[in-house]
Amino acid sequence: MDNDNTKRTLIAIGLSTLILLGWTYFFSPQPQPAQAPAEQAATMQNSPATASVPAEPKEAPAFVPVDGQDVVVETPLFKAVLNSAGGILTDFELKNYTTSIEPGAPQVNLVSSAAMDKGLLGILWNGQGSWRSGQWAAPEQTRVTVSEGDETNVTFSGVFGGLAIVRTLTFKADSYLIKEDIALTNTSTTPISGRLGFTLASKPLTHPDDRYNMTRVSWLDAEGTDNENDREDLGAGVSRLDGVGWGAIQSNYFVLAVAPEAGNLAMHAKYAGDLFRIQMDKENIDLAQGTQVNVGNNYYLGPISENFLAGTPNGLESIVTYGFFDVLAKPLLQLLNFLYGMVGNWGVAIILLTVIIKIVFWPLSNKSYKSMNKMKKIQPLMAKVREQYKDDRQKMNEEMMRLYKTYKVNPAGGCLPMMMQIPVFFGLYQALLGAIELRHASFIAHVPFTDIVWLADLSAKDPFYVTPLIMGASMFLQQKMTPSPGDPTQAKVMLFMPVIFTFLFLNFPSGLVVYWMVNNVLSIAQQWMLTRDA
């Protein structure tokens, strides 16, 4: 029995040796002809020092292409599924966010089946998808768990034409940022030049009729942060070539962004087939024969949250923007977060923030209301002047100015203090409209003493329109307490303002309506106090 085992062992060793020698003879790569010193110097001179570095001579393992396999990466924040054939993303579930407030609602998934076909997180060489035409090796591991406080690398290796590609993705437990290092090696016998592309694709992240939360393409370039949501313009294509830092597909709450290392970047975006698509190109990559270049890249897939985006590379933190009033919106949102930390209810926090803002502007509001009350007292005299000089506009204006001077009334006195408050109002409006903190945040979850869902999501409209109707009524009452404008046409326009605003607010996120409603109620109380004391 022992002799048989010995014979089998010797035969196995002999066969293995023959196979190894045969493989080496027939399939091993032929040695490249050595370059003369002058040729080497010319090659180094013509290739950018930062872009192409001669590869260290080392024995590379045999490359064996296989069909794509799922690689699951799970962190405390998300679960990602990538396909080893190119490292494209096929699933990305956010563990802390659900699609609705319904019990058992699925988690938000930033990858759709339609987007998978476009190679989400795929890389391109000169416009060709490496996940389609390349050959890729089996993954080293098919399931990776990133524990709290840790980080893990996942590597994909492939061959695409004359390029050997090694993609290393780094996942951190406490971050939605995915860092990438791509090693490109020229395995051909001639120099290679081209551009390396990074792709993103997504179905609309919001309902097409949602005017306050539109899916859009955004970017950072030499002119700053900008975006485009018009689907016709995106259908024709949008490109940015100067000073590009990142490109993204986003809603108010979630974003898919790509930010390659700085230098020679171009962004191209398009909307077609109900898909938003972005391609970021790193231009002018030159590889001499047998050399290697490393290109860095970053992806961010997750919530638009200042906490997670702070300190991210390539200016990715500028994704958190609230438009023209950004400088006011951000500190107001920080104060709102502070108040929520104290009371534990976002609706109550909004009410407290509105009260604080009203207190800060109390002196200005008082000045405005006092000026309006003075105007109210001289309304009969103003009416007489208009009637007396209705056919002489110049004389009417002269008499009006004399009237204001006699009674020491500034016709703009009621408007200027209010105008100073408008930027703050709009800043808070923008903050509440885009704050992911309010998404699925509850104020009064049910109608009192019932199981009927009411203000259970401050980012959604009031299902029963109670708050916008109260807001409209408060606006009407506030207008009745304010002296009517002297111009009859202007007075008629103002009469319709509460109706117009009520219709506008019917579909507003309820958090915004609560803010505006409370502000109106406080303004009525302040105006009533001043009127009573007058």
TrEMBL record:
Domain named Membrane insertase YidC N-terminal: residues: 71-334
Subcellular location, record wording: Cell inner membrane; Cell membrane
Main subcellular location of this protein, as a coarse class: membrane
GO biological-process terms attached to the record: protein insertion into membrane; protein transport
Membrane insertase YidC/Oxa/ALB C-terminal domain: residues covered: 346-531
Region (Disordered): 34-56
InterPro entries given in the database record: Membr_insert_YidC, Membr_insert_YidC_N, YidC/ALB3/OXA1/COX18, YidC/Oxa/ALB_C, YidC_ALB_C, YidC_periplasmic_sf
TM annotation in the entry: 9-27, 338-364, 493-518
Keywords: Cell membrane, Chaperone, Membrane, Protein transport, Transmembrane, Transmembrane helix, Transport
CDD domains in the record: 5TM_YidC_Alb3 (cd20070), EcYidC-like_peri (cd19961)
Organism domain of life: Bacteria
Transmembrane helix as UniProt keyword: yes
UniProt-listed NCBIfam families: yidC_nterm (TIGR03593), yidC_oxa1_cterm (TIGR03592)
Subunit note: Interacts with the Sec translocase complex via SecD. Specifically interacts with transmembrane segments of nascent integral membrane proteins during membrane integration.
PANTHER family: CYTOCHROME C OXIDASE ASSEMBLY PROTEIN COX18, MITOCHONDRIAL, OXA1
Free-text function comment from the UniProt entry: Required for the insertion and/or proper folding and/or complex formation of integral membrane proteins into the membrane. Involved in integration of membrane proteins that insert both dependently and independently of the Sec translocase complex, as well as at least some lipoproteins. Aids folding of multispanning membrane proteins.
Protein name per the record: Membrane protein insertase YidC
Protein's gene: yidC
